[in-house]
Design a protein that fits this description.
12 strands, 6-stranded mixed β-sheet, alpha/beta, disordered N terminus, 6-stranded parallel β-sheet, 344 residues, Rossmann fold
């Protein structure tokens, strides 16, 4: 689904009239949203009196099924909206596959939207997609308070969220992953380790300083001669990794290993090192974070902290299932695994 398909929501700062949702009808009739769906679509297995009460509530509220429900999705099927930040980033297709497969196993369907790495698109997308689906899964930058007027009561699972939230969560055990990665570099004899971080347009680290903070905590614990000046920041891209590596080498020519924010950035650092005539890993080791399969194609292949992205998608669907059924769901924490290859 493209950004243009979400245009009905208007800009994030506008406040268009609130559309009556299926959940509003369910609340007014005192039934579940699944019961409302069955009643409105004249499905069986529903008490006639309950159906009448639902239809009366729908008429009173002037409920109108969305064009989306009438066309692109089946109204008698649970539909989950998935919001990612960039469908081109190779991290997301693997995760999307995990979400779709887990949803299909339940007989559900998935609709995908992208913010295109533009934070300003996020709230409008949450509002428009949230009006079309039964639940949302999203990689979202905004806080709970900022999201509240746009979610409108739709069950929400936030991904890779390291702060407290009232929604469902699938988080990544970044701390353990960073620790294992840096310890591995130290075991290989590296002391002067730099980091290439990524920043959003607002100047904040992509994940709330989590990877940066973990890096600094670990190097301090290990007594390494590294401080904030050994961290550079750039865009989350191969070009950003190349520029970051060049900047890091300029500031610290004696850097012997680089920890990159993710594998895309690490690939850029890897390329920059080779372009400068450096031997990887003899002259400078490179460590990534994400576990993208493309890292195996480098020469030498990329050492990385692997995230099981398909499993992450499965856990998100598990969270949605609990939210829809009213079952208490504990926040899920996805473990990471160090995969050692030739770049270290």
């Amino acid at each position: 689904m493209t950004k243009q398909q979400h245009g009905a929501a208007g800009s994030a700062g506008s406040e268009p009239p609130r559309r009556v949702t299926l959940r509003d009808v369910a609340q007014a009739a005192g039934v579940s949203h699944q019961t409302v769906s069955r009643a409105i679509n004249d499905k069986g297995e529903i008490d006639p009196e309950t159906r009448r009460r639902v239809l009366d509530a729908a008429r009173e509220l002037r409920y109108r099924p969305s064009r989306f429900a009438r066309g692109l999705v089946r109204p008698d099927t649970i539909t989950v909206g998935l919001i990612v930040q960039d469908v081109v980033n190779p991290f997301y297709p693997e995760l999307m596959a995990g979400v779709i497969e887990a949803a299909e196993n339940k007989g559900w369907q998935v609709v995908v939207g992208s913010t295109q790495n533009d934070r300003d698109n996020e709230l409008a997308l949450v509002r428009s997609l949230g009006r079309q689906v039964d639940a949302l899964i999203g990689f979202l930058d905004h806080s709970d308070a900022e999201l509240a007027p746009y979610v409108e009561g739709v069950p929400l699972v936030v991904m890779d969220r390291h702060q407290k939230t009232s929604h469902g969560v699938v988080d990544i055990d970044i701390e353990t992953g960073v620790r294992h990665g840096i310890q591995h570099l130290v075991e290989r004899g590296h002391q002067k380790i730099g980091m290439i971080d990524c920043l959003r347009e607002d100047g904040q680290s992509e994940d709330g300083l989590e990877r940066r903070d973990c890096f600094l905590a670990v190097v301090e614990e290990l007594g390494l001669p590294v401080d904030q000046t050994w961290i550079v920041a750039g865009t989350e891209s191969v070009a950003g990794g190349e520029a970051g590596f060049a900047e890091l080498r300029s500031k610290h020519p004696d850097v012997s290993a680089v920890f990159a924010y993710n594998d895309v950035v690490a690939i850029g650092a890897h390329r920059a090192a080779r372009r400068l005539g450096l031997d990887v890993p003899k002259d400078c080791a490179v460590l990534g974070f994400d576990g993208l399969s493309i890292g195996e194609l480098l020469d030498p292949p990329l050492t990385t902290v692997h995230i099981d992205k398909r499993r992450m998608g499965e856990l998100a669907i598990d969270q949605v299932d609990g939210l829809l059924n009213g079952t208490p769901v504990e926040h899920a924490l996805l473990p990471t695994e160090l995969v050692v290859r030739g770049s270290t």
